[in-house]
Amino acid sequence: MQRTEPDTTIDHRYGDPGATATPWAGAQEQFAAAEVAWLSTVRPDGRPHVTPLLSVWLDGAPHICTGEDERKAHNLASNPHVVLTTGANALHGGLDLVVEGRAERVTDPHRLQALADAWEKKYGSEWHFDVREGGFAGGNGLALVYRIEPTTAFGFGKAPYSQTRWSFPEA
């Protein structure tokens, strides 16, 4: 599932003179380390829906999970296009990240187990999942698991200010 490296460009209109593009490897590391991300989906009637959630980065892409009866799951069933964001609320320092992509459901038991292990490694035993029925079994029923296949991503540096764009080849 690993993809080739994205094309990386910097938009000098939105940065300090001399700012350079953020390397994709560094952006992935920061996203992988982020404790909270924000998922934006679209309701069937076209209205946006945004919610904070936990995510893990594995095999070149972020992954999220949601209960099968939650708003996110209903939205993804009708429109898999999403935006996942993370960063810091600081004005001077840090890197804000935006990943645009397509949510693809993960049902393979071996992939799900690798993801369950990644969730527990990152977030601790409080986030232990058992793999069952094509998802994660937990205290609140079945959670559906999705890989966010990136199409475009942005990094907004704030020390110095910069805007990096990563464009991914189609799979």
What is the topology?
Elements: E1 7-10, H1 24-33, E2 37-42, E3 48-53, E4 56-58, E5 61-67, H2 71-78, E6 81-86, E7 95-106, H3 109-123, E8 130-132, E9 135-138, E10 141-158, E11 161-167
Antiparallel strand pairs: 1-11, 2-3, 2-6, 4-5, 5-10, 6-7, 7-10, 8-9, 9-10, 10-11
Description:
It is a single chain. The chain has 171 residues and is of the alpha+beta class. 19% of the residues lie in helices and 44% in strands. It has three helices and eleven strands, in the order E-H-E-E-E-E-H-E-E-H-E-E-E-E. Strands 1, 2, 3, 4, 5, 6, 7, 8, 9, 10 and 11 form an eleven-stranded antiparallel sheet that branches. The model has no long low-confidence stretch (mean pLDDT 94).
List keywords for this structure.
3 helices; eleven-stranded antiparallel β-sheet; 171 residues; alpha+beta; globular
- Shape, per Cα inertia axes: globular
**Structural class determined from secondary elements:** alpha+beta
Our Rg estimate from Cα atoms comes to 16 Å
> What low-confidence regions span 5 or more consecutive residues with pLDDT below 50?
none
Beta strand %: 35-45%
Q: What is the number of beta strands?
A: 11
- Number of distinct helices: 3
Mean pLDDT: 94
What is the straight-line distance between the termini? 9 Å
- How helical, in percent, are the residues? 10-25%
Write down the secondary-structure element order.
EHEEEEHEEHEEEE
